[in-house]
Amino acid sequence: MTERVAVDMWFDPLCPWAWITSRWLLEVEQVRDVDIRFHVMSLSVLNEGRDLPEQYQDLMKKGWGPVRVCIAVEQAHGGEVLRKLYTAMGTRIHLGKEELGREMLAGALTDVGLDPALADAADSTEYDEALRASHEAGMRPVGTDVGTPVIHAPGPDGGQVAFFGPVITPAPKGEAAGRLWDGVLLVAGTPGFYELKRSREVGPVFD
User: Fold this and answer.
1) Can you give the three-state secondary structure of the chain, one letter per residue?
2) pLDDT for 1
3) Which residues lie below 8 Å from residue 35, measured CB to CB, with a gap of 6+?
4) C-beta separation of 71 from 134 below 8 A
5) Which end of the chain is more exposed for a tag (fewer CB within 10 A), N or C?
6) pLDDT tier at 55, thresholds 50, 70, 90
7) In whole angstroms, what is the distance from residue 207 CA to residue 196 CA?
8) What pLDDT is stored for residue 52 in this prediction?
9) Residues 66 and 88 sit within 8 Å (Cβ to Cβ)
10) Which of 154, 176, 169 is nearest to 206 (CA)?
């Protein structure tokens, strides 16, 4: 039996590309010897002080609530419950097209059997220090000129590799998901490798 290894992904619930990558990783978990652990980063933290279009500024203001609630749940109930909450939030945000706000947050909390009053964390700064620490832990190895998804994984030599991406749509399923994982690890574990990119021609596909 091959020993299973932990792979860590940092997400912001707002990001549709991170959502698709996370669904791909859950497929990878079924066909490769990896266990996926989810952690919180924040696009609102990442974009603090940046000159952004007004519409995106408004989104970043709304973005504080979901990540604060995620951190509150992680602290109170642990990573496995955070994983479930991310699925509940993402399903409502990206598939259900629900508005960001207390109703969505309370609904997602209820979906995973938690007290909807935890949605109060959205309007509190109580968890901001822990949020920033989680964000920093994820972003430090990859820098601040990328967003989410960020993945940390054991590399071919046993050391950690960290990278932004992959940005994919739709999420591959089954063995196709595993082959993509193999390829991503191969390039990410190559010393001096930094970027593969092409222009996106389609928006997020949530199939």
Assistant:
1) CCCCEEEEEEECCCCHHHHHHHHHHHHHHHHCCEEEEEEECCHHHHCCCCCCCHHHHHHHHHHHHHHHHHHHHHHHHCHHHHHHHHHHHHHHHHHCCCCCCHHHHHHHHHHCCCCHHHHHHHHCCCCHHHHHHHHHHHHCCCCCCCCCCEEEEECCCCCEEEEECCCCCCCCCHHHHHHHHHHHHHHHCCCCCCCCCCCCCCCCCCC
2) 61
3) 4, 5, 6, 7, 29
4) yes
5) N
6) confident
7) 24
8) 84
9) no
10) 169
Please say whether the dihedral angle defined by the alpha carbons of residues 16, 206, 80 and 143, taken in this order, is positive or negative.
negative
Per this entry, what is the length of the chain?
207
Q: Can you say how many angstroms the Cα of residue 181 is from the centroid of all Cα atoms in its chain?
A: 16
pLDDT digits (tens, 9 = 90+) for 88-129: 999 999 999 999 999 999 999 999 999 999 999 999 999 999
